[in-house]
Write a structure and sequence with these properties.
Pdz3 Domain; 168 residues; two-stranded antiparallel ribbon; 2 domains; six-stranded antiparallel β-sheet; 24% strand; alpha+beta
Length: 168
């Protein structure tokens, strides 16, 4: 049963990676920061659509296509609503002066590599039944551990630790 569950988890992980590679998300190239005044440009990717439109860190976003924006979540929603390769109109404030600029959405950059991490948790009832003890803090830096499903990592870690092969 455990082998079937592991196989199913690995198949779903592979399908997830395939989907991530083929699916593009609309982006403006800005990391927006929620402030008391609204969404503020925090960091800009070099040569991004927002950088080409003249947006700078510190600019406060007032609206997108005349729809008021007060948080970074709303920015993301408006960009998803606009879609890829569409022009949106940003109304911004810089040093108390309001201005508008067109921004063409582009696909978000995909990372060159994906690092899988497993978060260790307190022992589950299954671990107690088999007398496995997963530590509260552990690392998934070992190559093999990176590819283990999250629910198997604490079990593997405790088996390795009990066998004395993994030194902390």
């Amino acid at each position: 049963m455990l082998a079937l569950a592991t196989l199913a988890a690995m198949i779903f992980a592979w399908l997830n990676f395939v989907q991530r590679e083929t699916f593009d998300t609309p982006d403006d190239g800005v990391a927006w920061l929620d402030t008391a005044n609204g969404a503020q440009a925090w960091k800009l990717a070099p040569n991004s659509p927002a950088a080409r439109a003249g947006i700078r860190p510190g600019d406060l976003l007032i609206s997108i296509n005349n729809v008021p924006v007060t948080s970074q979540v709303q920015v993301t929603r408006r960009l998803w609503h606009a879609g890829l390769w569409n022009q949106v109109r940003y109304k911004l404030a810089r040093n108390g002066q309001e201005f508008e600029t067109p921004v063409v959405t582009a696909p978000a950059e995909k990372p060159a590599s994906i690092e899988l991490r497993s978060v260790c948790r307190p022992p589950l009832p299954l671990h107690r039944a088999f007398h496995f003890r997963a530590p509260l803090e552990c690392s998934a830096r070992h190559t093999f551990l990176r590819f283990l499903p999250g629910f198997l990592h604490p079990v593997f870690f405790s088996i390795q630790r009990q066998a004395g092969r993994l030194r902390l």
